[in-house]
Each structure stands twice: as structure tokens, then as C-alpha cells.
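Example 9 (inverse folding). The structure is encoded as follows.
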């Protein structure tokens, strides 16, 4: 992680979390129609022991965020990944992603899944470079023409398609 950066948990209803999520939602609103935006994340899904909402701080300022929630005892979903535009390209997304994967593993997940949009080119490149592979979209994302879904085994081994 870059000097001056720190990732730590933050309550989903905190002013910091609400501000970052509002910025993310505004960005998504510019790029996708309402039916193609997936904002659902409840406080209990990221409560201690169930998941986590993490914020990356750079030189004392909240600069990005991400969440992990458990979908099943061994599968976690990453959500709400965001870095403020002025701080992009500095490795902060990778730091959040790594911290979320660590949290998922600590919660018992053996694999993680996520959804992103087809216009999120930097996110697509990040996930692919971090070892994520494309999978058929799942759940609410299955019918979305703009969704692209990924998974990654946390052991470093490829995920067996039978485990999906």
C-alpha cells in the first residue's frame, strides 16, 4: 500500500461511509439507467462477524471504500468498491480489494464473487489483474445487460464450476 494510506472498518451509517456511497451512487447514476444500478447493502450484512465496510484513508482523508458480505458460509460478495476520482491510479483500489479478500477469508469464505458494470473499464482491469475470472451473472445481476460478474478462489486455486 502506498505511504500515508490506511484501510480500516467503518460503520455503514457513519457520515464518512454515507459520503463515499453518495459519491459512488452519483457516478453510477451518470453511467447506468436506474434498473442497472445495484445499491443494496444493509448494515447487518456488514456488521462485525457478518461482513465489513472498509474505508481507505490517504493522508487522513477518506478516499475510497468497499464492502464484503457473506452470501453463504463459504462464498462472499464484494460490493461498493469506489475510489474518489482525484486519487485513482495510485493503487488504493488494489489495497481495498486485498483487505476485503482478507476479511472474506477471515469470515470463512473460500471464494469471492462480485458484479461490476460494463462501462467500469478500470474496475474490469483491476479484477482481471487480481486473478478474478468471468462467471455467469448471479442473483439480481443475472438479468442485467450491463453487468459483468467475476469470482476468485481465495486459496489461489481455480474455482471448480461445480462449486458455483
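The amino acid assigned to each position is listed next.
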Amino acid at each position: 500500500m502506498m505511504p500515508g494510506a490506511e484501510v480500516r472498518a467503518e460503520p455503514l451509517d457513519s457520515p464518512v461511509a454515507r459520503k463515499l456511497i453518495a459519491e459512488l451512487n452519483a457516478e453510477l447514476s451518470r453511467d447506468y439507467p436506474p434498473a442497472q444500478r445495484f445499491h443494496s447493502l444493509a448494515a447487518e450484512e456488514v456488521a462485525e462477524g457478518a461482513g465489513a465496510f472498509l474505508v481507505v484513508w490517504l493522508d487522513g482523508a477518506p478516499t475510497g471504500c468497499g464492502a464484503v458480505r457473506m452470501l453463504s458460509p463459504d462464498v462472499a460478495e464484494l460490493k461498493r468498491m469506489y475510489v474518489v476520482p482525484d486519487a485513482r491510479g495510485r493503487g488504493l483500489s488494489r489495497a481495498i480489494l486485498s483487505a476485503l479478500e482478507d476479511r472474506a477469508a477471515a469470515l470463512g469464505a473460500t471464494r469471492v464473487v462480485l458484479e461490476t458494470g460494463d462501462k467500469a473499464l478500470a474496475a474490469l482491469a483491476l479484477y482481471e489483474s487480481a486473478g478474478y475470472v468471468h462467471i455467469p451473472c448471479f442473483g439480481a445481476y443475472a438479468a442485467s445487460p450491463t453487468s459483468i460478474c467475476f469470482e476468485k478462489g481465495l486459496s489461489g486455486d481455480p474455482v471448480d464450476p461445480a462449486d458455483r
